[in-house]
Amino acid sequence: MDMKSVKLEKVTVNVGMGESTDRLKKAKVIIEKLSGKTAALTQARRRVQAFGIRKGDTIGAKVTLRGEDATEFLKKAFDAVEYKMNKRSIDNHGNFAFGVKEYIDFPGAKYDPTIGIIGFDVCGTMVRPGKRVTVRRRLRSTIRSRHRVTPDETADFLVKNFKVNFYE
What are the strands of the beta sheet with 7-16, ordered from one edge? Predict the structure, then answer.
């Protein structure tokens, strides 16, 4: 095993509604249909008075995919955005995120008039072998900066495995 190789750890699919209404239930159903997994509801971490959100309010839904499920979902998600992604969508730790404006752009999704048009976010987390030492309980340690995933390595990974085109 090459310790410098980069791999996809997980893909998180998120939809935020800002309120706990019937639309949130419909959005949860959509991401469950698209991913094939059960979605978890997310709560607000803090109060945002301008939007009328209190701490603990249910405001969104998310699904975390790993392994082969994550790879298959990511292929379809890149197809929905026509394999284009902004270079600035990759952070300094090598993770990336992009949005799909309408769920009907996703391959295999059919429009449901009772739901309407809802978009969602796709976030990918990239790691190298040895990352576990930073999160384990016993004998936790740090990894050096040269072992962390860089944005360029993530871009190369996405171009090679998913044929993504980057723009500025």
Answer: 40-43, 58-66, 7-16, 120-127, 96-100
**How buried is residue 157: exposed, middle or buried, by Cβ count under 10 Å (0-12/13-18/19+)?**
buried
List the domain range (segments joined by +) for residue 130.
7-163
Phi, psi of 156 (to 5 degrees): -60, -40
6-24 burial, b for 16+ CB within 10 Å, e for fewer? bebbbbbbbbbbeebeeeb
Contact 63, 42 (CB under 8 A): no
Predicted local confidence at residue 3, as pLDDT: 84
Q: Which residue has the tokens 């090459």?
A: 2
Task: Kindly state the helix (H) or strand (E) to which residue 42 belongs, with its residue range.
Answer: strand 40-43
Q: How many domains does the chain have?
A: 1
Q: What is the mean pLDDT of the chain?
A: 89
Residue 153 lies in a domain: yes
